[in-house]
Amino acid sequence: MQRSYTIKGQRYHPMSVEQALNYSEDGIASWYDESKFFGLKRGNTSLGEKVMPWHVSAAHKTLPLPCVVKVTNLSNGKSVKMRVNDRGPFIPRRIIDVTPRAASKLGFKEHGLTQVRVEVVSVGDGKYKRKAKRSWFWW
Q1: 137 in a structural domain
Q2: Which InterPro entries would you find in this protein's record (predicted)?
Q3: Which of 50, 55, 63, 72 gives 117 a disulfide partner, CB atoms 3.0 to 4.6 angstroms apart?
Q4: Quick one: how far is CA 29 from the chain centroid?
Q5: Rounded Cα–Cα distance for residues 19 and 117 (Å)
Q6: Is the pLDDT of residue 136 over 90?
Q7: Is the dihedral of CA 60, 55, 66, 27 positive or negative?
């Protein structure tokens, strides 16, 4: 999913697959809760996927959907791989929103925000999946 879109008067242009495969950025992460345990009324992502409280996923403004990223909390060194399947955060200076479970695994849920490094692991699904060519990934 690479179509341009507009939110609150701001136009966003998702990056190409090639750009995304080389993407790495440091910035502020936040967490958001789009799920409900009983009755999934609010729990749909931009890709139409359901979100449950135990999912580990994220939202990004310009990465192609879907993709997998490694998010590292720079204050404690904890890292988690997660699927990016939604758009956001639409708050200035934030680079990624993660689900509550992801925020817990990264050790910042109680703080709300943290400084992170986001690195793309792969873009796409199934036969369209392309992996980033970084030799320094350790998993």
Answers
A1: no
A2: RlpA, RlpA-like_DPBB, RlpA-like_sf, RplA
A3: 72
A4: 9
A5: 17
A6: no
A7: positive
Please name the amino acid found at residue 109.
Answer: K
- What are the E-state strand segments in 32-137? 57-59, 67-73, 79-86, 94-98, 113-123, 130-131
Q: Is 73 within a domain? A: yes
Structure token digits, residue 112: 């709300």
Structure tokens at 124: 């796409």
Answer whether residue 139 is part of any domain: no
Q: Render pLDDT for 26-72 as a digit per residue (tens, 0 to 9).
A: 999 999 876 655 444 455 778 778 777 788 999 999 999 999 999 99
Domains: count for the chain: 1
**What DSSP element (H or E) covers 104?**
helix 100-106
Strand partners, 36: none
Q: Is the dihedral of CA 135, 106, 35, 9 positive or negative?
A: negative
Provide the CB-side half-sphere exposure for 47 (13 A, CA). 20
CATH code for the domain of 79: 2.40.40.10
Residue 28 contacts residue 114 (beta carbons within 8 Å): yes
